[in-house]
Amino acid sequence: xxxxxSLLSVSERPRFxxxxxxxxxxxxxxxxxxxxxxxxxxxxxxxxxxxIGGFVFTETRMKGIRAWITPPFAPHCxxxxxxxxxxxxxxxxxxxxxxxxxxxxxxxxSGPAFVxxxxxxxxxxxxxxxxxxxxxxxxxxxxxxxxxxxxxLRKNVDPKVRGLLDPGELxxxxxxRPAELMAIVQRxxxxxxxxxxxxxxxxxxEQAYAGNRLIATLVRRGDEIQxxxxxxxxxxxxxxxxxxxxxxxxxxxxxxxxxxxxQQARMRGLQAFDxxxxxxxxxxxxxxxxxxxQVPYFQLTAGNRWIRLLWQLFRK
Length: 316
Known about the structure:
The chain is of the alpha+beta class and about 325 residues long.
């Protein structure tokens, strides 16, 4: 049966969200997606008349140029789809290539002048996109398997920082409300000139808090706040969203605060903790020190090749 990809109308979105609640990650579920408002676009994957999956992105303007990008604060576009019912590995591989080929065709035919999308790390075969002339770049995250015994998790941590996991005199507050957390985290946005996304970040934290999908730690020493770490989760995985440590914080603030989030995720019965990755060397080293398994994923850039080249230059 033929496959096709199309932008979903408002009336078609409930079908997508019902499917994503069953088979997708947090980043394609309705409670998360509604935060993006009118900027959100949903590409549905159809097999005949059946909606079998899809992915999301936001439409924006970059230097005045219309663009489709991974939604802010999401690690990827959330692509998911129902697999073929065949148990034959060759047919399974072929079906997955057909899916990516249809997505590539959709981006070529319907996409704007610039497209930048990250794919979930479950998508390992991007050959059809490469064959269509799209640029694919590797990125990396670290994932901790939370079903391991706590002793094993601690042993996996870099011995040089293992002692920093213990809070010592720090107070680890897990009851902080979103406004308290954002009052600290917004300093990171100010440093990185991300003020335009500050409202979106606050709204995502509020909706996660309301839906009991928020895991966060506010780190204090006496009356002084040392830092804040914010995570969100679905039924399977906890994702590190963002955090901040003050300039004069205690040495163990970062490791103790984030380790406490990992422990909370484990106590909630989640299967994995995903650091959401970073290509910044200092941040990557910090994430790596927690002993997770390195997992590659892919970033796609497509559209006008001259605009893609300019984006590469501006990014450096």
